[in-house]
Design a protein that fits this description.
single chain, 140 residues, alpha+beta, five-stranded mixed beta barrel, 3 helices, 46% helix, 24% strand
Amino acid sequence: MDPWVWWLIAAVGLGIPLVITTMPEFGMFAVGAVAGAITAALGGGIVIQVIVFVVVSVALLAVVRPIAYRHRTQRPEQRTGIDALRGRQAVVLERVHGGGGRIKLAGEVWSARALDEERSFDPGEKVDVVEIDGATAVVM
């Protein structure tokens, strides 16, 4: 049997644990085995085939593994609940001042008060939500 066939058998053999264990390292070794098969098919000697297998596998481990680890450990920051409402714009429904008022925020009617006690906002104005204090949006 030709050496490239043995390399492909090794690649499949390394691909099986990849699927079973979901460890990406096996996939990188499988790609190295495919590179060894290509080298064998092009007429490279066994020493060159092994060197290509090792170089490709180590290069993939050195480059791809840290990137994959970083993507696996970093969670995209998704704000939920009242945290998602901070910084959003709202429309004033009833005059908002330091003592209260009503706004439409994210499709819902909220009670609101102005951050600056001296400031007031008239109906139809757009305001920014600074924080949520209980069931009241603090706007500016």
